[in-house]
Structure to design on (477 residues):
C-alpha cells in the first residue's frame, strides 16, 4: 500500500468500519485493494452505490454465519424485541417526570366544579405514581408481581365515591357533568355505556341488564373519569370518580430514544454472539437453543397482548394510552420476561467463552498459509 | 442458485481469480448486465466458502495491494455442473416450445 493513503482509500476505510474488526483485520486490505483497483484514477470519493453496498454488506458481515439465509430475519426480530422492551423501560423512567396524582384539595376542587350536587363519602388519594394493589410497589411484592399478580401493577388514581340512591336520574347527572366539563375547558370524550354484569344464559334477558355510564375528560395533565352506576339501595356505589395524571411529554421522546438504542444494542449483541458461536460446534447447538428460548419468552407475551390492547383501546375512549409495557404484556408476564433475560445472559456468557482458535473467514486450500 | 452466484462460480471455473478479476470476468460473462460491487462479491465469496464451494488458492502482493486468488473446490465444480445441466434442460425445453410455436405464429 502507498505510504500515505489517498483520500479515496481513507474514505473507503471509513465506510469499512461497518464490518466487524476481525473481518477488517483479515479481509480489509483485500477488499480495499479491489475497491481501489475498480475506481478510476480521478475519483476522490466513493460513489453512493459503493457506500450503500459497503454499509449493507458490512452490517451483514457483523451477523456472521455467511451461509445462513435466515440470520438477517432473526437479527431484525431480536433488534425489534430489544427495542420494544428498552423503550418500555425508558417510558417508565420518563413517567417519573409526571406531577404527583391529584391530591385531596385538587379533587375537592374538581368535585365542586363538575359534580356540585353530589357529596362524596370519601377521597382516597393515590399512594404513588404507579401502585400494586393500590399500594406503593416495594421489593417485598416482587414475588407476587412475578407469580401471577403482575396485572395489579397499574397507574395510581385518586378516587372518590358516593353510595346510595342517585339524587337525580343518572342521564341527567352525566349530561350536567359533561356540560360543566366543557364549560371548564376540559376535553370531553364520547360517553360510553357498559352492562353492569354479564348475562350467562336464559332466563337472563340482556335487554334488562342495567348499564353504567362512563365519562372521560382531560385538561392539562389531569385525566378525569366518572362512572355512574344504576343503584337501587343505599349501600352500593352509584358514583365513582377517578383522577390521575396524563402521560408526561417526556414519555414519547424517551420511548423513541430508548427503542432505537435498545434495537441497536440488541442487534449488535446478536451479531457478536452469532459470530462468536458460528464455528464452535460444541457451543453452537446450546447457543441456538438458548436463543430460541429467549425469543419464545420475550415474544410470547407480546403476541397475545398487542391484539388485546388494540381491542381494548378501540372499545372505549382513552384520554391517556396504556403504558407501553402493558402492550408488551408486562408486568403480567414478567416471569417469562425474566426467564428470557436469563436465557439471553447465558447465551451471551457462552459466546464470551474463549475459543481455542480463530477460524479464518475463507478456508485455505491445502498448502496455503494464512497471512 | 442466483445468477450472480452462478456467474462467480463460472468465472472461477476458468481457473483461480482474485477479487477484481472475478468482477471483471462476471461483467464480461453477463455482457455487462451484472456488475458486482466488492461488498457483494466478498459476501458471496464468504457464503460460497462457508458452503465449501470455493477456497483460497494463493495470495500475492502487487504494487502494494493484496490479491487473494480463489478457486473452485470439488463440490463447487459439482454444483456448477448441476446448475449448468439444470439451466440447459430449461433452455432446451423452452427452445422446443418456441420451435413448436413458430409455425403457428408465422
Amino acid at each position: 500500500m502507498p505510504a500515505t493513503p489517498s483520500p479515496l482509500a481513507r474514505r473507503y476505510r471509513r465506510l469499512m468500519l461497518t464490518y466487524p474488526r476481525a473481518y477488517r483485520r483479515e479481509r480489509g486490505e483485500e477488499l480495499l485493494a479491489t475497491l481501489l483497483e475498480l475506481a478510476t484514477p480521478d475519483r476522490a470519493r466513493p460513489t453512493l452505490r459503493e457506500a450503500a453496498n459497503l454499509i449493507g454488506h458490512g452490517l451483514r458481515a457483523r451477523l456472521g454465519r455467511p451461509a445462513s439465509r435466515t440470520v438477517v430475519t432473526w437479527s431484525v426480530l431480536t433488534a425489534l424485541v430489544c427495542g420494544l422492551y428498552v423503550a418500555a423501560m425508558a417510558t417508565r423512567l420518563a413517567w417519573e417526570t409526571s406531577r404527583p396524582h391529584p391530591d385531596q384539595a385538587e379533587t375537592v376542587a374538581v368535585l365542586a366544579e363538575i359534580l356540585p350536587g353530589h357529596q362524596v363519602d370519601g377521597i382516597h388519594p393515590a399512594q404513588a405514581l404507579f401502585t400494586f394493589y393500590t399500594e406503593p410497589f416495594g421489593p417485598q411484592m416482587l414475588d407476587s408481581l412475578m407469580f401471577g399478580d403482575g396485572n395489579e401493577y397499574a397507574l395510581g388514581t385518586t378516587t372518590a365515591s358516593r353510595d346510595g340512591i342517585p339524587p337525580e336520574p343518572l342521564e341527567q347527572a352525566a349530561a350536567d357533568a359533561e356540560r360543566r366539563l366543557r364549560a371548564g375547558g376540559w376535553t370531553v370524550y364520547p360517553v360510553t355505556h357498559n352492562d353492569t354484569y354479564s348475562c350467562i344464559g336464559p332466563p337472563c334477558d340482556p335487554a334488562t341488564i342495567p348499564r353504567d355510564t362512563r365519562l372521560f375528560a382531560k385538561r392539562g395533565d389531569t385525566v378525569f373519569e366518572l362512572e355512574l352506576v344504576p343503584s337501587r339501595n343505599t349501600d352500593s356505589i352509584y358514583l365513582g370518580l377517578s383522577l390521575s395524571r396524563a402521560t408526561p411529554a417526556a414519555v414519547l421522546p424517551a420511548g423513541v430514544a430508548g427503542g432505537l438504542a435498545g434495537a441497536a444494542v440488541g442487534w449488535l449483541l446478536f451479531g457478536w454472539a452469532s459470530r462468536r458461536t458460528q464455528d464452535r460446534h460444541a457451543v453452537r447447538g446450546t447457543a441456538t437453543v438458548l436463543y430460541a428460548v429467549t425469543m419464545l419468552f420475550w415474544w410470547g407475551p407480546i403476541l397475545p397482548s398487542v391484539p388485546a390492547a388494540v381491542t381494548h383501546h378501540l372499545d372505549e375512549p382513552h384520554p391517556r394510552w396504556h403504558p407501553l409495557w402493558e402492550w408488551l404484556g408486562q408486568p403480567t408476564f414478567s416471569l417469562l420476561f425474566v426467564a428470557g433475560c436469563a436465557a439471553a445472559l447465558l447465551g451471551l456468557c457462552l459466546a464470551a467463552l474463549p475459543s481455542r482458535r480463530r477460524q479464518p473467514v475463507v478456508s485455505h486450500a491445502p498448502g496455503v498459509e494464512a497471512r | 442458485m442466483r445468477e450472480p452466484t452462478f456467474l462467480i462460480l463460472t468465472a472461477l471455473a476458468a481457473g483461480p481469480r482474485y477479487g477484481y478479476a472475478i468482477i471483471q470476468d462476471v461483467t464480461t460473462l453477463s455482457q455487462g448486465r451484472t456488475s458486482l460491487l466488492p461488498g457483494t462479491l466478498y459476501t458471496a465469496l464468504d457464503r460460497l466458502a462457508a458452503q465449501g464451494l470455493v477456497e483460497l488458492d494463493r495470495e500475492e502482493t502487487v504494487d502494494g495491494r493484496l490479491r487473494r486468488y480463489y478457486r473452485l473446490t470439488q463440490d463447487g465444480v459439482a454444483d456448477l455442473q448441476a446448475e449448468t445441466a439444470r439451466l440447459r434442460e430449461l433452455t432446451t425445453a423452452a427452445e422446443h416450445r418456441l420451435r413448436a410455436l413458430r409455425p403457428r405464429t408465422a
Residues 1-62 of chain A form one domain. Chain A touches chain B at residues 1-2, 27, 29-31, 33-38, 49-50, 53-54, 56-58, 60-61, 65-67, 361-365, 368, 371 (CB under 8 Å). The two ends of chain A are 16 Å apart (CA to CA). Chain A is about 50% helix and 15% strand.
